[in-house]
Amino acid sequence: MAETSGEFGETAEGFGVRRAGAGDVPVVKAVIDAAFQPYVERIGLVPVPMEADHAANVAAGRVFVTGEPVLGLVVVEERPDHLYLDIIAVRPDAHGQGIGGRLLRFVEAHARALGLDEIRLCTNAMMWENQKIYPRYGYEVAERRADGPYDRIHYRKRLIGQDRRAADGSPPSSG
After folding, report:
1. CA-CA distances (angstroms) from residue 142 to 8, 51, 124, 153, 163?
2. pLDDT in tens, 66-96
3. Side-by-side strand order, sheet with 63-66
4. What mean pLDDT comes out for the span 53-62?
5. What are phi and psi of 174, to 5 degrees?
6. For residue 117, what pLDDT is reported?
7. Strand partners for 84
């Protein structure tokens, strides 16, 4: 049975995404390390995603991967009033192929499937590339604050009032 990831009958498979299994833990770590390694020197610290407990995240069902072999992934956490996008990572050799955008669209559909109308995430202020990407997908800056040694920009995307597709994927009717 396909795992529903959108209120309009979209499935994770429809996005080319699947929930990670225990056998994926080494590749989850490898993709995250490859994606975040370039920032170690720039930030002067190891980015938090590189130190995450990947096995625990996979076991909790929070990790979704795309590609065969895995080219990208997201780690999400359902919270009472929003979906928190904890990590998004794409292998550097797969940049420019639309994988990050596909993963962001999956996260939006997943939030809707969970009945949540907002997505939140944060990025290190030194990862300036992200400050150009997230607004293109409808995210707005909520705040900037220091979290320990990390200078973070917090984003949110509200899903209320956005156009929603009908169950068959067609645009909503105007009548």
Report:
1. 28, 25, 14, 8, 22
2. 999 999 999 999 999 999 999 999 999 999 9
3. 17-19, 63-66, 72-78, 83-90, 118-124, 150-158, 140-147
4. 98
5. -100, 5
6. 96
7. 77, 120
**Amino acid identity at 101:** G
Bridging pattern class, strands 83-90 and 140-147: unpaired
Torsion of CA 70, 50, 123, 97, to 10 degrees: -20
Are 28 and 63 contacting, i.e. CB atoms less than 8 angstroms apart?
yes
Q: What is the DSSP string of 14-73?
A: GGTEEE--GGGHHHHHHHHHHHHHHHHHHHSS--GGGGS-HHHHHHTT-EEEETTTT-EE
Residue 169, φ and ψ in degrees, nearest 5: 90, -5
Helix (H) or strand (E) holding 109: helix 99-113
